[in-house]
């Protein structure tokens, strides 16, 4: 099994006719994802290498039965794109776009919670989600992830960082460990899907036997995840936190990655995770090696 | 983007929040001219983006032109915690009955806007939070609903302000919320928010941080971007569109992706070195971006060696390697470079780098090995 998306998930790409949307939409289709539609108000009725383009998400859903959307719309249009997807009947919305204003994120997060409680939002500013061998929605290089053999122990990955997610997938592949699903929750202040949402889903997924969690400085998502791990999780968790030596008050690339007022430090996050029974690596490779030991001892 | 106090006050004033009459100046003569215009007594305030101005002597009361001349002369050019004062704000002095605190920021955990209001203003809110947390009245505002007048009134009542300040506070808090949301701020803070003997409530200070991602709908924010406090390296990197943060070490760091860049900085520290910077070149890692990154790094005289840490995802190893080789041909580099290249087509990429390897360009297979090498080179 996998979480959130699988081989049956039909996806509409909002912004398919733009350069990024086209590039990744076609790569995702090549991987095996059911890329059933694209949207563009000005290019409705055309197609992108056989993928039909509709005027809006509602039309795409009506014609293709899409249940997921992947948004490559530039930041100024993301708020409307997210609402268009929810109103159009989409259940799983992935926002790859970076640079979305925090006030927009806070607004559509709460709007979805209230008016579309069954819709799951992933991102903004995330690499997307991949269930290896089944579906790849977003910008992850699919071949880095090992498809788990039938009956094989598989690891779930949840991460705030793109390249560190790739690094984790790669370390596991080098050690011949398959991945059930890898979720990039993104580096922004208001992520639609949290670490806890993913941990909960991995705990319930029969195929996933251990979870790799990659965090970074800023906010308190890792501390909240640690509390969840401590009280609700039976599966082993291995973690890595980036930004141990980041100076306070400086945003380290991601809008969410900032230590302010003594809060959000890597040390506090690592302590909370260790205290919750998770194993914590000091660098990505060490975390990978810890996971190898965990999987071999299963 | 952090605003100076005077910019914050102008920002507040544009949303109808009462602030003292005043102006920002850069010379003693202009300071006197402003004081003469607005009337004495005035306060002369250093404009630096760091706390503790008052204790450092950066805020002075002046009763006449001579005193303005003296204080402005002393404060301009003053060093406050490493920040040189280049601008001063001269404003009408205010009589104060009570000092309050008010702010809005995003509560990332609750995913709602958090308003904080306290009758104990004028001191650092962290201190109040630690010593007397009950003195801070908090309100969580759902961004979809916004802040209603009834909520603001209830909130003010909970903060136990002087009853005479209620109407003024309710009005200012609603305007502050509008400034926070419509102005796309990460933080708006008034400390102190003052209650005057004649019954007015008014912002005596302004701390504002704007969301850099919102500039597409606030073209006027460009003026704030150009007045950000950056060191020379950060200014150059910013002009090249690079995600760069200056640090105080000697190992230059280039990586792709914010997480990997942070991780690289960590590893350099872990093996006993000191990174000179954080630099994320993003996913592409082509020759132009790499050359720009190398230029910024090599212009830093403290850099003794450079660590290029790239993990290829969609971008293939060959493209990254060609980018590095081309960039090295374009930029004059006199410190050794250690490359760690992994991910998609890493072997092909390494094969491209192989013939170029020398004392000036080295390659290591893992992050840790590369970090150890680059730190050893910097120290030798």
Number of strands of chain B: 18
Task: Tell me the structural class of chain B.
Answer: alpha+beta
Structurally, how many domains make up the residues of chain B?
3
- Give me the CATH superfamily of the largest domain in chain A: Succinyl-CoA synthetase domains
- The structural domain count of chain A equals 2
Largest interface pair: A-B, 60 and 49 residues
Going by CATH, the architecture of the largest domain in chain A would be 3-Layer(aba) Sandwich
How many helices of chain A? The count is 9
Total number of helices of chain B: 13
Class inferred from helices and paired strands of chain A: alpha/beta
The 3D shape of chain B can be described as: elongated
Descriptive overview:
- The complex is a heterodimer of chains A (298) and B (380).
- With 298 residues, chain A is an alpha/beta fold.
- Chain A folds into two domains: 113 residues, Rossmann fold; 157 residues, 3-Layer(aba) Sandwich (Rossmann fold).
- Chain B is α+β, with helices and mostly antiparallel strands and 380 residues long.
- Chain B has three domains: 72 residues, ATP-grasp fold, A domain (Dna Ligase, domain 1), CATH 3.30.1490; 125 residues, D-amino Acid Aminotransferase, Chain A, domain 1; 148 residues, Rossmann fold.
- In chain B, strands 7, 8, 9, 10, 11 and 12 form a six-stranded antiparallel β-sheet that branches. A four-stranded antiparallel β-sheet of chain B has the order 1-6-2-3, covered by helices on one side.
- In chain B, helix 2 crosses helix 3 and helix 10 crosses helix 11.
- The chains are: A alpha/beta (298), B alpha+beta (380).
């Amino acid at each position: 099994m996998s979480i959130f998306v699988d081989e049956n998930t039909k996806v509409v790409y909002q912004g398919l006719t733009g350069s990024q949307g086209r590039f990744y939409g076609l790569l995702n289709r090549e991987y095996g994802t059911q890329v059933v539609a694209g949207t563009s108000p000005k290019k409705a009725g055309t197609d992108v290498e056989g993928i039909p383009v509709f005027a809006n998400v509602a039309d795409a859903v009506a014609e293709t039965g899409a249940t997921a959307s992947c948004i490559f719309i530039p930041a100024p249009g993301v708020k409307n794109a997210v609402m268009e997807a929810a109103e159009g009947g989409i259940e799983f919305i992935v926002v790859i776009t970076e640079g979305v204003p925090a006030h927009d994120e806070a607004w559509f997060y709460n709007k979805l919670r209230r008016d579309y409680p069954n819709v799951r939002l992933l991102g903004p500013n995330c690499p997307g989600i991949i269930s290896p061998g089944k579906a790849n929605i977003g910008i992850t290089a699919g071949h880095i992830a090992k498809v788990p053999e039938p009956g094989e122990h598989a690891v779930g990955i949840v991460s705030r960082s793109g390249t560190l997610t790739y690094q984790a997938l790669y370390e596991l592949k080098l050690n011949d460990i398959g991945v059930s699903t890898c979720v990039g929750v993104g580096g922004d202040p208001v992520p639609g899907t949290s670490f806890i949402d993913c941990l909960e889903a991995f705990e319930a997924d029969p195929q996933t036997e251990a979870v790799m969690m990659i965090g970074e400085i800023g906010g308190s998502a890792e501390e909240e995840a640690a509390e969840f791990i401590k009280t609700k999780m039976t599966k082993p968790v291995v973690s890595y936190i980036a930004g141990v030596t980041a100076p306070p008050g400086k945003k380290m690339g991601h809008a969410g990655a900032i230590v302010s007022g003594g809060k959000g430090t890597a040390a506090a996050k690592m302590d909370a995770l260790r205290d919750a029974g998770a194993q914590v690596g000091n660098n990505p490779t060490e975390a990978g090696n810890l996971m190898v030991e965990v999987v071999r001892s299963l | 983007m952090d605003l100076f106090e005077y910019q914050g006050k102008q920002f507040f004033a544009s949303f109808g929040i009462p602030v003292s009459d005043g102006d920002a100046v850069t010379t003693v003569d202009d300071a006197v001219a402003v004081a003469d215009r607005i009337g004495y007594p005035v306060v002369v305030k250093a404009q630096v983006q760091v706390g503790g101005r008052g204790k450092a002597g950066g805020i002075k009361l002046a009763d006449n032109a001579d005193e303005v001349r003296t204080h402005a002369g002393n404060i301009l050019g003053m060093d406050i915690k490493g920040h040189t004062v280049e601008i001063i704000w001269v404003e009408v002095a205010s009589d104060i009955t009570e000092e309050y605190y008010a702010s809005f920021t995003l509560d990332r955990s609750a995913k709602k806007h958090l308003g904080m209001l306290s009758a104990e203003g004028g001191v650092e809110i962290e201190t109040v939070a630690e010593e007397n947390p009950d003195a801070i009245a908090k309100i969580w505002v759902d961004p979809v609903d916004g802040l209603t007048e009834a909520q603001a009134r209830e909130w003010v009542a909970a903060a136990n302000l002087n009853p005479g300040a209620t109407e003024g506070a309710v009005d200012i808090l609603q305007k502050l919320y509008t400034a926070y949301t419509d102005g796309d701020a990460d933080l708006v803070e008034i400390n102190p928010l003052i209650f005057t003997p004649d019954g007015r409530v008014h912002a005596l200070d302004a701390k504002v941080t704007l969301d850099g991602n919102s500039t597409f709908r606030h073209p006027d924010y460009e003026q704030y971007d150009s007045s950000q406090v950056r060191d020379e390296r950060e200014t150059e990197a910013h002009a090249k569109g690079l995600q760069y943060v200056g640090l105080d070490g000697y190992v230059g760091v280039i990586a792709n992706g914010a997480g990997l860049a942070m991780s690289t900085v960590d590893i350099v520290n872990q093996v006993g070195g000191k990174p000179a910077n954080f630099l994320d070149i993003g996913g592409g890692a082509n020759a132009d971006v790499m050359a720009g990154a190398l230029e910024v790094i090599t212009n830093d005289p403290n850099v003794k060696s450079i660590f290029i840490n790239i993990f290829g995802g969609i971008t293939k190893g060959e493209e990254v390697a060609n980018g590095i080789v081309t960039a090295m041909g374009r930029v004059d580099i006199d410190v050794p470079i250690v490359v760690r290249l992994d991910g998609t087509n890493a072997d092909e990429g390494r094969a491209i780098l192989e013939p170029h390897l020398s004392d000036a360009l080295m390659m290591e297979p893992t992050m840790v090995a590369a970090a150890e090498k680059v730190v050893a080179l910097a120290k030798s």
